[in-house]
Amino acid sequence: MQKSDVDIRSLQIGFGGLKVLENLNLHIAKSEFLVLLGPSGCGKSTLLNAIAGLIDVKGGEIHIGGRDVTGAEPKDRGIAMVFQSYALYPRMSVRRNMSFGLTVAGTPRDEIERRVGEAAQMLRLTGLLDRRPSELSGGQRQRVAIGRALVRHAGVYLFDEPLSNLDAQLRAELRVEIKRLHARLGATMIYVTHDQIEALTLADRIAVMQGGVIQQLDTPKKIYREPVNRFVASFVGSPAMNFIPGRITRDSGVEFIAGKSRLSLNGYAFCGQPADAPAVLGIRPEHIELTASDDPSSVSARVEMVEPMGADTLIWCRLADGTAFSFRHDADAHVRVGDTLTVRFPADALSLFDETSGQRL
Amino acid sequence: MRLSLNSRLSAFSALLPALLVMLVVYVGATSWTVWMSLTNSRMLPNNNFVGLRQYEMLLGNDRWITSVHNIVIYGVLLVSLALVVGFLLAVAIDQRVRAEDTIRSIYLYPYSMSFIVTGLVWQWLLNPTLGIQHVLRSWGFEGATFDWIVRPETAIYCLVIAGVWQASGLVMAIMLAGLRGVDEEIWKAARVDGLPKWRVYVSIIVPMMGASFATAAVLLSTGVVRLYDLSVSMTNGGPGIASEVPAKFVMDHLFERANIGLATAAATTMLITVIAVVAPYLYWRARKGGMR
Q: Is the peptide bond before B239 cis (omega within 30 degrees of 0)?
């Protein structure tokens, strides 16, 4: 099975006067699993459809496997695609759904049979080959759709929100299956989703998109730990990152002031020189620590709500000046509503953002 | 939950008029028709039971045999042609053409016309000395011949032409609704699979549209059974008896030829034929529904 890289050069896409993507550049390496992550309307599906050749581009080039395919038909691009609604051919058996494209393309029969058998085995569909899609569950249908993509032996596999129509449990199962498939085939995969958990679990690299622009393109870990702006910080992570408005001062060492609380920023890796300016502090719920009350960098907060989540507990607190935040604690913490806790925000786990531009400081 | 007597009473009284109409008009009139077909009624109904003699006469009646023959030709051709033409029109409109609304209205327009008007228009169009043949000859195609309507062996096909012209718009509307219901992503998947458009229609879309085809076929079939006015206005059953149809046979014998017995025998035969076709289908549907 060949593997292709994908190179997108200053791509422009618009519908009428509306610009969806403008001057977008992206390179996806061979065997890479790239996730396009973003809210609906951010242009991620448009980008995927453009790579597939299902919509026309206004400018720029798309190269797949070193070949310029900007004007090529989808079938000539060496791609295969899986859709959100499965898009199976409803009156055809599973076997025929997988083989129909190859049959029409004139692939020899024994070759088709071999490929279908192989894909069916990989996706545990062997016993279902003679069923109709209507006789399958949602998860099985999506596996068939993946199988239909696999038999094409494409250089790049495109997934357009493939798990969005499934319930939570199936989604988790199929997610693992897709990851396993990628590990086994080593194929190049581009995967569109609005679900940040899917993105974090599956991707080699994530491209977080908003408003037709890639906000950040990096490994899941980097995206999670060091979001480049407030949008990425708030979109990735569940429960969401806490944001506390305040300002940075350099009176006595670099500190962050929110209301009456002062927080040492000693140990925070600034992108540039810290300046005295209003800023927003971001911290993930799991990075906030309980501490002893005599710790100088601690703040005290009142517990407002406790959400037990099984493995751990999410505790909603409010600082003296009214700023609310949540933090994660292990499940057997004896915390009750109304308690006063002393917590610490470790400087190396913080993210600081410019108040106006939202860029990471 | 048990309904109170009062609310059951009001439900019953609300249904009563419909029930009465059903019993008196449909069941009553139908039974009376069947009974009449077993008597020797001529101009006025009487109750002289003669067994199946009217049916024997019916089967020996040339005009009836021709009528049955014609309705089979008309039915098969009309349903199949209207389905094909209607589907093709719908496919054509589905290609995101401009002025779709206007074109759709134009296609649907013939359906708003009564069969009488349709029949008259096509009678003129097909008339060799007035219509298409005349126009073609006046353009210089001296040998052009299109005289189906005056030839006994082809007159029935003229009814088919007019019927298809009238019904295709409706079929198109039903088919277009079906086509619009097809998931956009199926088209995308087919493009990625490299399937040519016609192949997608033939192998994927048409099999998906079973319900649309069934709906259209049922509507067309009811039109076939009651075919009367088109034959009257277009050919008046002629030339000779070449384009007679069963409903016209019944009407003529009932009112013009004063032969109630024979007319009701013909009507009953039509009823039995329809039941023979529909009953197995309903049975199959019911069983299929019961199995789910």
A: yes
Nearest CA distance, B168 vs chain A (angstrom): 26
Q: Structural domains in chain B?
A: 61-287 (1.10.3720.10)
- Tell whether the model's pLDDT for residue B1 goes beyond 60: no
Show Cβ contacts of residue B276 under 8 Å, excluding neighbours closer than 6 positions.
none
pLDDT tens digit string along B87-131?
999 999 888 788 888 888 888 888 888 888 888 888 888 887 788
User: Chain A to chain B, count of Cβ pairs less than 8 Å apart?
Assistant: 66
Q: Calculate mean pLDDT across residues A81-101.
A: 92
Residue A15 in this model has a pLDDT that exceeds 60: yes
For residue A104, give how far its alpha carbon lies from the nearest alpha carbon of chain B (Å): 7
Instruction: Tell me the average pLDDT across B9-15.
Output: 89
pLDDT band, residue A45 (cuts 50/70/90): very high
Contacts of A81 in chain B (CB under 8 A): 188-189, 192
Q: Whole-prediction pTM value?
A: 0.82
Write down all domains in chain A, each with its CATH number in brackets.
6-235 (3.40.50.300), 242-354 (2.40.50.140)
* Cross-chain residue pair B188–A92, CB shorter than 8 Å: no
For B6-25, what is the mean pLDDT? 89
Q: Give the model confidence (pLDDT) of A102-151 as tens digits.
A: 999 999 999 999 999 999 998 888 889 999 999 998 889 999 999 999 99
Query: Are A75 and B207 within 8 A, CB to CB?
Result: no
* Shortest Cα distance, chain B CAs vs residue A143, angstroms: 15
